[in-house]
Automatic annotation (TrEMBL):
InterPro entries referenced in this protein's UniProt entry, alphabetically: NA-bd_OB-fold, ssDNA-bd
Name of the protein described by the UniProt record: Single-strand binding protein family
Any GO BP annotation: mitochondrial DNA replication
Source organism (scientific name): Musa troglodytarum
GO cellular component: mitochondrial nucleoid
Domain of life of the native organism: Eukaryota
Example GO molecular function: single-stranded DNA binding
The organism's taxonomic lineage, starting at the top: Eukaryota, Viridiplantae, Streptophyta, Embryophyta, Tracheophyta
Length: 261
């Protein structure tokens, strides 16, 4: 009996120094945090997650129109541009399908050149051509639609003391650059929420106050939290934090059970 007990102790127990506290930093990440980030993704029920959910920020390039014939709803096209950090500066078009309340709202308020954020279920449709060929294209069944503020609109809402004279002296090129910077930043948020595991979360481990809150592991792109971030960014970030907290509790429990029992 005694020999079996000694065998068990040697086989399963490690020196006390081998056990790391969750507060012990390894580089710029704690051991438990890194374990949770590198662990197997959690499994969810298909019914509990949105079906092929997607989101885009783009510019309206066609007027909103109602479907012809017996089809209900309305549609438009947006152009989605890639961020300047991408190896390609190309863009693509995607059709938006609008129904119910969003149909009426879009027909009333949505105009060409508006910059909007949309999210919904990704689908496809077939387009037939006169030569007999056909093509398959993607569309978004829109469930959420928001206007995206341009830099000048943000200035007006946050700096009401700026006079009309000062407003008129802002160079056009400067405004265009600011709009592009805003569009690129919001697109990076899309990239982040699509694959958050590809980014480092540095909010709790900054080397200095000006460091990025999130940093891409490969491209080194950075994201900083800002007071003027759209509401959809804050909502998605809250969901991200709750998922991380849930996975972290699960992984810590699994690690404790594996190493101490």
């Amino acid at each position: 009996m005694e020999s079996r007990r000694l065998f068990f102790l040697k086989r399963f127990l490690r020196p006390f120094s081998a056990y790391r506290s969750a507060r012990t930093g390894v580089g710029d990440k704690s051991f438990v945090y890194r374990q949770s980030m590198l662990g197997r993704p959690s499994t969810v029920r298909r019914q509990s997650v949105p079906w092929n959910l997607c989101s885009f920020i783009g510019t309206v390039i066609r007027p909103v129109k109602r479907y012809a014939g017996n089809f209900t709803g309305a549609y438009t096209l947006i152009e989605v541009k890639r961020p300047s950090c991408s190896s390609s500066s190309s863009s693509f078009w995607i059709l938006l399908s609008l129904s119910n309340k969003l149909e009426e709202v879009s027909l009333k308020y949505l105009n060409v050149n508006d910059t909007i954020y949309v999210s919904g279920r990704l689908g496809s449709y077939t387009k037939h051509y006169e030569d007999g060929s056909c093509g398959i294209f993607y569309k978004v069944h829109v469930k959420d639609l928001n206007f995206v503020k341009h830099y000048r609109q943000i200035q007006k809402s946050t700096e009401t003391e700026i006079s009309a004279v000062q407003e008129s002296t802002v160079p056009i090129s400067s405004t265009a650059d600011d709009d592009k910077e805003l569009r690129d930043r919001l697109h990076l948020w899309q990239v982040f929420f699509a694959n958050p595991h590809e980014w480092w979360d540095n909010r709790q481990s900054k080397f200095y106050s000006g460091s990025a809150d999130f940093r891409h592991k490969d491209t080194r792109d950075g994201l900083w939290l800002r007071p003027d971030d759209p509401s959809w960014v804050r909502r998605q970030l809250q969901l991200y934090d709750s998922n991380i907290a849930m996975n972290r509790r699960s992984k810590v429990h699994e690690w404790e059970m594996k190493d101490f029992l």
